Amino acid sequence: MLYGHGGDVYTIAKELGIKPQEVLDFSSNCSPLPYPEGFKEYICSNIDQMHLLPEVDCETIRGLLAKRYDLHQDHFLIGNGTTQWIFGLPRLLRPKRAFITLPTYADYEDACLTENITVYPLGSFPRGDRQEEEHLFEAISSQKKEAFEDSLVFICNPNNPTGLFLEPAKLLELIQQMPETTTWVIDESYAPFVGEDQHSSLLGLELPENVVLLRSFSKIYGIPGLRIGCMVNRGYIQKRLAKQMRPWAVNRMAQLALEFLLTNPGFEEEVRQTCQLEKRFLVERLSRLDKLQYVEGRCHYALFRLTGGLKAKDLTETLKKKGILIRNCNNFKGLTGEHIRISPRLRRDNERLLTHMETLCK
Q: Quick count: other Cβ atoms within 10 Å of Cβ 28?
């Protein structure tokens, strides 16, 4: 297990003697907005449902998703966060090998190595600009197609931590050129921050049976503590996973929360617009500092390369002492040099971060 993800507010809270919610967390890429009107009242009014077992297979949620995406509800599996399938798919499919683009989310490699599956990197894409999209396609296309037979390919789209985003139609075109025995795991955890479904997700297209989509509800709705995520597949993979699903895999309060949020689509748009606005504000101010170079990306978080001898560890540790978390990206394979990642909060918190950053990064 990698102890280096963002969002570890508990350790810093213990060290500083404060409550976890008092930590200013810019390291976790979740919505900073308060929950929509009526959400807390809805949860409180249904609190007694904790006395009941959850829906055994999240049928209500699957029905809502099926209606939203015009798919059959059996194409959806709801589980304990996308991590359930990141680790479950290598164990279930037992591929000959796995391919992972770099830099990216470390759990893909961890999951494969846990099952003794050899992992091959597909290039290094640290900038996140449009030109690098072409480089990524070249890196995949340049491989011998035989190497992809009976293999697993993980692609985070948009990518973490670079923000590199591949247009869904173009990504699907690439998938269709490769062997049908390749399983493509496309992690769309951050897609809602890029745009509406029809512009940011493969869910708006005809999904081949060898494509598995992962969708996180933690990020866009700001509910990571509830651990609930979605897997979408319209073929044999879904059927095999469904047979192995444990009953009551999702707790009742998580089910209720997501049912409410899925029926309030305006909240998603509010989160998307707010995060992109605050990202532009942070990037504009931080890009003025000589020791920070912004890495262009399409997502709401911002990756910065540190220059002038500034070390990510020193910067993050200094901010921790002030109750502020940003992401030290030194444990992302494929990044050359020192990098940090910042996910925006609301304006008042962002201004507080800027005050410290402008002093520390001169």
A: 19
